[in-house]
Write a structure and sequence with these properties.
Spore Coat Polysaccharide Biosynthesis Protein SpsA, Chain A; 10 strands
Length: 278
């Protein structure tokens, strides 16, 4: 019998992320929502990634391919073409869903907002050993602000399949492809912020946007100016260095530690509060 629950497709682009991809897989596999397909598009990894994919391929509704591709955007676009779900998202192979109910919450949000095509929420920043460093608190959607800066945390965003019917990622962009995607689909599709932590965004030494931060800023500035000639990107991106931001993070992590969350994988709190300043 066909499930009455909408099918949710999670696409994971992968390349030599054997250190983290098992956490990514478990965060999808352990969801309490039953109607999920997980599509992993690997670019021909040479580390232990393939062994991990084989380990889990028959344990839940996961499908994977491994072949050379044109980079992360190309891999995600392949996944878009394969997606059968009513709701679609992509989850990078070093990121994770936050708790076992993340996908369940998303489907309920789409029911609550039937005229909305994109749902996004909050995330936590984690390190290489799964310690929670701080909460990435998002903001209500604002079209004009999006033209100035990418405030949507990509792994915490989900969209209806119709969004990708005529929209793919720009393969000429290697870092800010998500920002470009949000800007383009915003022309025709409605966004809705919900106050729920959906994902864990991982910070680690080999992270692309960390190693190539200058390129990321250049790509984002170019996109910002393309979609809005009057850009305040330089001013906005410096807000994270303000002292009040650090104080706010201390308050958030203190209150967060006093909640009870059933994590989707092996998350743990950082006892070193100074980590939130990194």
């Amino acid at each position: 019998m066909k499930s009455k629950e909408p099918l949710v497709t999670i696409i994971t682009p992968s390349y030599n992320q054997g250190e983290f991809i098992e956490d990514t897989i478990l965060s999808v596999k352990n969801q309490d929502y039953s109607n999920i397909e997980h599509i992993i598009i690997d670019g021909g990894s040479q580390d232990k990634t393939i062994d991990i994919l084989k380990k889990y391929e028959n344990s839940y509704n996961m499908h994977w391919i491994s072949e050379p591709d044109g980079g992360q955007s190309d891999a995600i676009n392949k996944g878009f073409k394969m997606a059968r779900g009513d709701i679609v998202a992509w989850l990078n192979s070093d990121d994770c869903y936050f708790d076992v109910s993340s996908v369940s919450h998303v489907t309920k949000c789409f029911e609550q907002y039937p005229d909305t095509d994109v749902i996004y929420g909050d995330a936590v920043r984690i390190n290489a050993t799964n310690e929670i460093l701080y909460i990435i608190k998002n903001r209500k959607f604002n079209d004009e602000y999006l033209k100035k800066s990418c405030f949507i945390v990509q792994p915490a965003a989900f969209f209806r399949k119709k969004v990708i019917a005529n929209n793919q990622l720009n393969t000429e962009l290697d870092i800010a492809m998500d920002y470009d995607f949000w800007l383009r689909i915003n022309r025709e599709h409605k966004f809705q912020y919900v106050n729920i932590i959906f994902a864990a965004d991982r910070e680690h030494a080999k992270r692309k946007i960390r190693l190539r931060r200058h390129e990321m800023i250049q790509e984002s500035q170019l996109l910002s100016k393309t979609y809005d000639k009057w850009s305040k990107f330089d001013k906005i991106k410096n807000l994270s260095s303000f002292p009040f931001r650090k104080i706010y993070r201390i308050i958030r992590i203190w209150s967060f530690k006093h909640t009870k969350i059933k994590f989707a994988f092996d998350l743990k709190y950082s006892d070193d509060i100074s980590l939130i300043f990194n």
